[in-house]
Amino acid sequence: MKRDYDVVVIGSGPGGLAAAIAAKENGAEHVLVIERDVELGGILLQCIHNGFGLELFNEDLPGPAYAQHFIDDVRGHGVETLMDTMVLDITPERTIYAINKGLGYLELRTRAIVLAMGCRERTRAQILLPGSRPAGVYTAGTAQRFVNVEGFMPGEKFVILGSGDIGMIMARRLTIEGAKVERVLEIMPYLTGLTRNYVQCLLDYGIILEKQRTVNRIIGKDRVEAIEAVSVDEAWQPIPGTREVIPCDTLLLSVGLIPENELSKQAGVLLDPVTNGPFVDDRFMTNVPGIFAAGNVVHVYDLVDWVTEAGYVAGKGAAAFARDKHVEPGEHIPLTAGENIRYVVPHKLDKARLAEEQVRLQMRAIAPIEERVLVTVEDQNGEVVAKKAGAYARPGEILTLAIRPQAYELVQKATGLTVNVRRR
Amino acid sequence: MPKKYDVIIIGAGIVGSLVARFLSKYQLDILLIEKEANIGMGASSANSAILHAGYDPIPGSNKALTNVMAVEMWPVLSQELGIGYSRCGDYVVAVTAEEVQVLEELLARGQRNGVAEIEIISGTEMRRREPLICPDIVAALWVPSGAIGDPFAATVAAAENAVMNGVELMCGTAFEDFLMEGNQIIGVRTNQGDFHCRWASNAAGLYADEVMHKAGVRPEFIIRPRRGEYVILDQAEFQLTQTTVIFLTPTDKGKGITVSGTLHGNVIVGPNANFVDSKENKDTTTEGLQEIWEGGNTLIPTISRKHIIAQFAGLRATGNAPSPDPALNYNQDFIIEIPNNVSGLVNLGGIESPGFTAAPAIALKVIELLQNAGENLQEKPDWNPVRAPRPVFRNLSREEQAALIAKNPAYGRIICRCEMVTEGEILAEIHAPIPATTYDALKRRTWLGTGRCQGGFDIPRVVAILAEALAKTPEEVTKKGGQSEFLYRSTKAVDQDYLNMEALI
What we know:
heterodimer; A: 3 domains; five-stranded parallel sheet; 26 strands; globular; B: FAD/NAD(P)-binding domain; D-Amino Acid Oxidase, Chain A, domain 2; Arc Repressor Mutant, subunit A
């Protein structure tokens, strides 16, 4: 195989596939996708539920069908792919070290890299969940792989901790497969996943969600035998007299996702402690010239469509970098989180970019606002550069807002932009 | 006439495995039995992994004698067994004047025990050596002969070396009773049948009291399980300035909480020491985690809860045996004896900390006891003390990794992405002289699933590999033996009639 590429994409989930396609479409000749699993598609392959593609295609697709659309495009564009291959190291000079059973130890050079490794699930240890250590405690995504890809049920009687999307989707999936989901517990006073998943996966199946309630202890020697649930106050402290032992054989955890950036760090990429992903500009380039990042590796998205879009932007940027071998010296201004906003991605904006196309911002709210809201992007003088009305703002759902080319003139005067979400 | 073993060793933890390994040097028929599915599942699987220098135990006690004796054995032993060992030294730090006084006592005790080069350094010097240390430190005990080891690897390597030298190992074999003729042990009854022997060695860890009581030995000896809880920090997120072991000043409850480097590169924080009601109660608790976290924070204020990637608890086999020398007035000593009232028993009990450290010296004591009892031990001419280590992919250079994959492609497939464990390493353990047959056995031997994703990525893959290699269905693969299956049933459970119909078509 070749050892020199224009663009190498690491990961073949929705972000990676879109980046590879965009790189090809924007003039990169030799593009390679490296995937650690045996097929292209990433986690989409285990997401056999629907709800993918509504924003991008106006279609309601299951994960594998959504992925196939892009896999066909990747094949059609002549992108090279390496499956069952693990990247061990990336240098800031863009040498990639990877291993594969058949090809052995690989050392590849590339002009640009798109990091698209996705994210991993938070574990029992990270939420300091005490008790015994039996079999039968899984992250929701691992259970999803067992059920949907491997074809095995990891239990019959479940408690799910966390109202994240994968947890709620698994509650429905397990019920369909004949298991009993005793309870979904959420420590926060609000849902952490999408409302539509609450309706379609829990309400429609009569599965009980209890908020401000968590698992206090895991019980069982060989296999989970029960969990102890407890109600908590606003400070997550247990409320006396609310303990309940719930018999079950499996505990699923859907308690958050963390962008997977171990390789990024090895390459010298700087991470934002709020998103746990790289600091990126509006082309999704990191602080390391030629290293781009797309999708959940940057921050955890709620909809795959936006991941795909980010992949296109990063792939296009990577192709341009590979072609010109330098960074556009454009003037960047910072994008910062303002009122009730936890973070904004990208972290900075090339002012000139708006001459070509719109730039989409993604934000997460800090606290829920259950009434009409206005999201604004304001310059240093409070001048509104972009705005969007919404019916509510919830931490579980990403806010998106595009700065349109019409705002070009306004943005040229700005020294920085702040995003806010307020009651209307 | 059933086979008669010379020695049956009850329990394949670090003590039983090292006793087997050192006894395998002699012309003896030895059987090592273990009640769990794999060896080293008890206290040997959950402890601080520290090889103590020996300044803590009461001078003259069995603990002190075996600890200090073993300190000089570990460098050679770890070479022979192909396991990790690092003499990184350890520190005990003091914040108050009272704690400095305790350091003085430890210094004096260490010197009496024969611990080499032990000294007290100033707070300033301690801060120079470890800038992350709490700024309130006023003094520290510095013990250059303190070290860290790998208790899982040591147990596996010792037992494997024993098996290479002819010892028979039976896992899933639980001791039930002794077979006796008068006061002479003639065998052992297990859930797998009766086995005859001339000698039985009690190395049953937490259950050593119950085992010796079956022979009528020391009815007053009781083991009270004393739990220690730990957390492990992500090695990519937190490191000490240099790998070392730092203790808080000990209290009457235990050696004191430590923040310590490990051979695997992670920092470990713990343990506390609390008596629990059951020998199976290895639960972690909210209060316990809080307790060790506060201790750890006192030592190193910059550790962050965000960096915790694992938590676990282990049980110390805390006994109530008086030291052989009554003048010591110490009632928590190791039992290392051939009891007076029963023949054919080498009795080991109350082996809590520093048990991991002391284990090889205890094994030598067992040999000495047998010789003193008139056993004429003849060395095997072909005894091989060396057990070669198997490749650990993540520890190799790029060139070595490439060469390994070229030789065996299974090393070119990563199964645990956080700890970079390859399929080759997993298969090597499954097909080792002592096969790893469960997920936890593989975890402890290869370190898979111990990283930041805690098995989220590897579990489905490892279940598939174990099922194929052991010719089992995935539903039969267990986490740690017993009823600890990962999976209940297939989602596509197709009934037989349907299959027959397909065949007809």
